[in-house]
Amino acid sequence: MRVSRNELIELLKLVFESLGFDQGDYESASQLVVCAEMWGLDGLEALAEALSGQGLQQHKAVRLIEEGQGVAVIDGRGLSSLLCLRSAADLAYVKSLSVPVGQVAIVGCQQRILVLQHLVNLCHRGIACGASWWDGVDYNSLHLLDVVPVNSDARPSYRVYRFELGEVDAARAEQLFVYCSSSQQAVSDYQAQLLPALGKPIKKIEAAEMQANFEASLVAGILVEDALWSDLVELAAKMLVPTSIQSRLGAGD
Amino acid sequence: MNEANSETAQERTTTGLPGEIDDIADLRPAETVMDLQRLGSLQSFRLSFMRILVRQMVRDRWQIRCSQFELDDLGYGFAVYVLQAGTEIYSFVVFAVYLADGSRNDRVIADQWDLTMALVQGEVTDSQLQHLRANVPLQEAGRMRPEMLVLSRANRSKRMFDNVVDSLATGLQPDMSRIKDVGYLCRTTAVYGSGKFGMADWSVVQRSCRSFARPFAAEMFTCFMLRHFSVEQVQHIASRRAPEAAVALNSDIRRYLGVGNATGLGMAPFLIKHPQLIARWMAVREVCLARVMARGKVTPEILSRLLAMIEKVIQHTWETHVKDPAQVTRNHQLMAELTNLSERLIGHQDFTDWQWLKVRLIERYSLDTIETMYALMIELYPHLVDDLEEYLGADEHLQLRPEIALSELKRTIESQYGWALSIDFRKPESQHVFWYRSEEKMEPRLGERYVESGADKELPVQVARSVKACHALILSDLLLHTDSDVVHFLLRHPDQISIVRRIQTMTPLIYGDIRANLADQDMQPMHLLRAKLSFFGVSKFDPKSRLWVRNTMFQGAPLISELDSGRDLDDWYFPVAPIG
């Protein structure tokens, strides 16, 4: 079935609230899923994975474990990006105010593709930003998300590169890097310095294609599998209060 | 509420209006404007959405024709109307079914209605009509499509509908005393837009439907069409019943008939959920008033028009029949005060600026009278205010400022949210009620916290409580982290992200948040409903309990046949019954 953006966001807020997320988290998490889906990055698939995993334990708090001028490291404690990125992107932004490129690494977080909305939010401050991470399964793919401001809009693009096993330090493979700068060139230079030499991407979604995905989802609605929709409706229903004679009085009679 | 209070508008920095088109020093302060009781006294005014829509329809000479009218002898079936608005085309589709008198229910939880309807982009095809027929009558239980802008439903007025049909069928015009008593044939009970149930996303409407790019314009137009259809339906039934004897409603009565509306608690969470939009609406209204105060010349002609308008408001209020004792008292007070004021104005026709009147209003008159007079003063100067029609929409995006020093955030809260900090939430009465969604169609409801279950699923409408809790946390956090910034505070206290984001977004806006504790025992949800309805442009506010209200829309507005007459038809505020 196809649903509107607004409809999906509102349903997901209830879903995440039913999972124990507090207000800031359920507002943010619903945007993360819908944003990734609309730009063509399979946000709903990441959501389904998160729902079936262990990364949605709201009571676990991420920790700032290392911090220097322009850089910081956060322990994501194995949580989903829906929860563990909370203030990471904002911290990267704050770091970027004192150095050419601000960077935050988040160790141990899942569904990293969902970082996109945080980058789009950063971009609305008029800065360029990006994120990179190694594939969490066999650590042989490098994912790059770039978001640049164009007029007042954010323009994301996405690439994936293949590397041989053993080329990547296992410690780095567990991390998600978020970086941003007021200079688009500084972000590009930073990527070149941070990452190994990149060959030809094995997957590439250009900014124009991502924009087209977004527009199509906005205009025609977002395609959601019936089974997932039913699951979401069932979860959301947990936030609704059972009716009673007394409660019916609480709306007008 | 004293308007001459200590807070000055200048403490905040912006109206949020593009380009800072006015000097904010002239505006009334937030403490006055965002007070809940005052919001509950607002009247519809020149820039209310219905007024703007009608001006737009007349100015752009919208053409509306009926393309299908398939009703049986009893008025059941469907009709399609096509709107040509410049180069844009839309269809209004309405389905009419039999509904037993005992089955009518104005609540959201109803599942049957006399009429269900939709506004669709483009001219509907047969296959679209088939889809609409299968889904629109189901309302929330149906699935809508992205080409649909609005979904709505309505019930007949038991007091009016059959009576008007009976009169027309016997060749008579309906009894005006009954018409005055009710004012409409059908009453809408819900109007959905903005992507609900699969319909077009608001951003798509804004971008690709120029005719409906203002807030609630498509929803208001749907109600306008419902008004038109309801008249055509009664005339159709009467003419089928008595083809020889039946007459059509005369145009004065048609114009006086509006469409009814029943509104419940759902509007209240909307106001809290859309703080930037509400702050914008208030800013536009206040800029209108400030311009009139600063630049509106008081001439004998203007004063004469004002006196005539006051007479009209008194007559309109006299014709507003309500049963709620508090509203009756308010209406009587408004009429008495306006009569008194009118006499004073006649005795002081030499005053030359509005400040003279403002001082006297604040000194002696109730909020209802003050806000009514401000609405009338704005009405007098279209050339000073009409350009602000374009600014009633807002870019709604709450933005965190993570780099700000935590101590600065603390100071901001103390200077801008003093009203929230002053509330003692330890008192049981301060937390007496909670807002929640019922499992019945997610209907928003109010519960008593110490009596009913469900408070664990409370809607997040308690801005004041959240602000106060956040402030307390900041105070304790600063003891350990003197030089902290906001982002580090949020890393330590991630549950504060939402309220900090709201505070930082709203504090630069001159009108900020609504100043009320929505959990308080004495809180009146009706004030919130009235505030929003005043921006819609409704009249005849008729509370049916403290939780829901009836009102009329488009009463006195031009008829479809008059839209392209080229005449000035913008005088339908505070409508009064036709003579005769």
Explained architecture:
The complex is a heterodimer of chains A (253) and B (580). By secondary structure, chain A is an alpha+beta fold. Chain A has one domain (2-249). Chain A has eleven helices and ten strands. Chain A has helices at residues 5-18, 23-38, 43-52, 81-84, 88-96, 116-123, 170-173, 184-194, 207-220, 226-236, 245-249, and strands at residues 2-3, 63-68, 71-80, 102-110, 128-134, 141-150, 153-162, 175-181, 203-205, 222-223. In chain A, the strands form two sheets. Chain A has an eight-stranded mixed beta sheet with strand order 2-3-4-8-5-6-7-9. The longest helix of chain A has 16 residues, at 23-38. In chain A, 47% of the residues are buried. The mean pLDDT of chain A is 91. Chain B folds into three domains: 9-44 and 274-394, no CATH class; 51-264, no CATH class; 406-506, no CATH class. With 580 residues, chain B is an alpha+beta fold. The chains are: A alpha+beta (253), B alpha+beta (580).
Main beta-sheet annotation of chain B: 9 strands, mixed
Largest interface: A-B, 44 and 56 residues
| Total count of helical runs of at least 4 residues of chain A | 11
- Give the oligomeric state of the chains in this entry, treating copies of one chain as homo and distinct chains as hetero: heterodimer
Number of discrete domains of chain A: 1
Number of strands of chain B: 11
Q: What number is the mean pLDDT of chain A? A: 91
